[in-house]
């Protein structure tokens, strides 16, 4: 019992502690999305060219905007400004420096944009050409200026977030939508706790298995085929592939 | 691989036979909680082809018909409303910029329509989809789960089918336990290691709880592997033969990939029959013939039904007269799949890196959603090292096998893997030469997850006695850590 319990418990404790430590890593939290996949290039921006998209309402305070695309050649520079959707007053701005690699690029905003306020996101090319990614998405409430009609560019608003563990309540709240009526955030908390408890249950499974193997060992019966494998304790038997001790 | 007679737990008699051993019971509790987590955390219709598979289930449940009407809608109005509301199709493949809708107001608006005076019909999804050519068994079983929440929303019905997948995952786990029992004898630590791999491998849990025939396919293949081993060990007893043939027929009626099982089970039947005393062999042939009927009749029935439905495909192997199969080209394709391309070979590869790494290893380790939610890269590297280590150690141990029964089991398992690989590679090769894209996905190897479990069980069985509990504990812990990281990756990908 002890032979199985100690290593099993040690494995489980190390794993749980490791996972909890990893859970404290920082993650950005998406607070809004334009809902446009980065399927294709919808516009090639050149210096001084500007595109805008909105209104978009953030679920919480936003401190960054992520845009998808790639610079055409070398390092480009683009400025993102967040405007009030009605008055077009600039609420915050930031910039990013993309390279010729299709990816998402995050502009950190100089001020926090409050949540629950409809905003418009404008993207201005300052230096170099930039291939802006997006797709054709029908959303009658959103207007886009500067790209072909019916196209929207991919963007998400980001908050500073926090740790992965600290963000779980938001994640579980979001995950509880579009589910059967009986599912709520509590369901995911319960399953999360069950996953942690599984490490303990796993130890008990190993201990039970080891105890059962200990109780039953060694049991040996003649093999009618004479072609049996080694016994449970790893020792060879007559007819096996290794030299046998002769007593 | 051990005989059941050796180092065995006492025979379980009477009702005790139905009570799982404590270690298995504990594992099943874990598998249920992990399975439920996968079923519920993955957003609606964010598993491979889930819309098409759910449409098939819905068509059988609502109309008792395979959705194949030319010109019909592939998805019902009910599903289209739900899909549009949550943004499932829009976000498929692009979860970062287009995650599922998080707005409660949008959800309430959807509920108002769904529960309104004129909810969208559920019966008008009669058109063909990418799932139409599949045999109907999974969808029939899934339709029963669908009806559990028939009066709820489309999401309730979808998640009812998903949660049924937890049952399939349990079947896979139990079958792997039994498979290890046949291979190693009643030795709980190797059995636990084997069953834990089958039930707790992240991709196994992810696919088993998706609306997808792969869940039933994995379960049935694992059951078939167990029964095949049983037929070999117990000399083709009548009940084993019939159940083995029935399980194989069920696998074929689940997905055409299972035609690959026919050769291996014929081998198992032949070996089991040959191991009988000569005097019993002629009688045993009648049993095997009866088993053959159990296999052939349902499959031919499906082929007939499929033909009457307008020539649905009965196999995934495409054929094209314009692009004939060329052995040299096929071998070139195989070489490039597993080894770096030689300058003399024309490019015939679908991934930037070695396909064996990109497809079998990375996707087999864990790529979730519509193959769009990736684990941290170090997980794939660690998985590669673990797979290489396990492969080398297992190979070393297998080369030491000498017993006829052990070699027979090994031959059966090896032929199963080989048949699956050949079928998959031939299919992809034909797809490629016909101008199609990549066909293979890592999840296509999951039907033999029980054999991966056996490899882990073999190592546990052969380490020194005092280290066996530690080895088993390490295997279970690693699997649980992989589960935790995979689930948190999915949470991060869709909800943060």
Straight-line distance between termini of chain A: 32 Å
Figure out the total of helices of chain A.
3
Helix content range of the residues of chain A, please?
10-25%
Radius of gyration of chain B, in angstroms, nearest whole number: 23 Å
Order of helices and strands of chain B: HHHHHHHHHHHHHHHEEHHHH
Largest β-sheet summary of chain A: 7 strands, antiparallel
| Count of β-strands of chain A | 12
Explain what the structure shows.
The complex is a heterodimer of chains A (247) and B (496). Chain A has three helices and twelve strands, in the order αββββββββββββαα. Chain A has 247 residues and is α+β, with helices and mostly antiparallel strands. In chain A, strands 1, 2, 4, 7, 9, 11 and 12 form a seven-stranded antiparallel sheet that branches. A five-stranded antiparallel sheet of chain A has the order 6-5-8-3-10, with no helix packed on it. In chain A, helix 1 runs antiparallel to helix 3 and helix 2 (168-175) packs across helix 3. The longest helix of chain A has 32 residues, at 185-216. Chain A is elongated, with a radius of gyration of 30 Å. Residues 219-247 of chain A have low confidence and may be disordered. With 496 residues, chain B is mostly helical. Chain B has a two-stranded antiparallel ribbon with strand order 1-2. In chain B, helix 11 packs parallel to helix 13. Chain B is globular, with a radius of gyration of 23 Å. Residues 2-7 of chain B have low confidence and may be disordered. Chains A and B meet through helix 1, strand 1, strand 12, helix 2 and helix 3 of A and helix 1, helix 3, helix 5, helix 7 and helix 8 of B.
